[in-house]
Amino acid sequence: MRISTKGRYAIRMLIDLAQHKNDGYIALKDIAQRQNISKKYLEQIVSTLNRSHLLQTNRGFQGGYRLAVSPENCTVGRVLKLTEGSLSPIPETMDRYSVYDDPCYFVWQGLNNAINDYLESITIQDIVDRLTESYANDYVI
């Protein structure tokens, strides 16, 4: 399993929106600039996140994007499944695999469960909180 730039950038975009949730709608160019990501690439990601109702869109002069869900209710697993598809550690879907096809099936199934459980346990808010903590502890005398 590999996480593509699409998945990583989608998470970074949602983190950025969560960090600026009190600023109203955020222009894509601002997110792109802060995250050092191509605006064109973010446009592709936005369509996926918008279809899944994770984003609210506002067009026009004060237009932009904001989270449609609370960052506490948006898991990394959900975002990666939307952007990456399956998070299975083997190419075949785990549903079609069985112990009869592969004697190590229980190993792959356990790994799949561990990956999914871990990613579903982390929310966008958890990441924002961790970043805020590390910024607060980053001081020089």
Describe what this molecule looks like in 3D.
The chain is mostly helical and 141 residues long. The protein is 52% helix and 6% strand. The radius of gyration is 18 Å and the shape is globular. The relative contact order is 0.16.
Mean pLDDT: 90
- The general outline is globular
Share of helical residues: 40-55%
Order of helices and strands: HHHEEHHH
Low-confidence stretches: none
Structural class label = mainly alpha
> How many strands in all?
2
Proportion of residues in β-strands:
5-15%
Task: Give the helices and strands, then pairings.
Blueprint (H helix, E strand, L loop, with lengths): L4 H15 L8 H8 L3 H13 L3 E4 L5 E4 L8 H9 L20 H16 L3 H13 L5
Antiparallel strand pairs: 1-2
In summary, what is this structure?
By secondary structure, this protein is mainly α.
List keywords for this structure.
141 residues; two-stranded antiparallel ribbon; mainly alpha
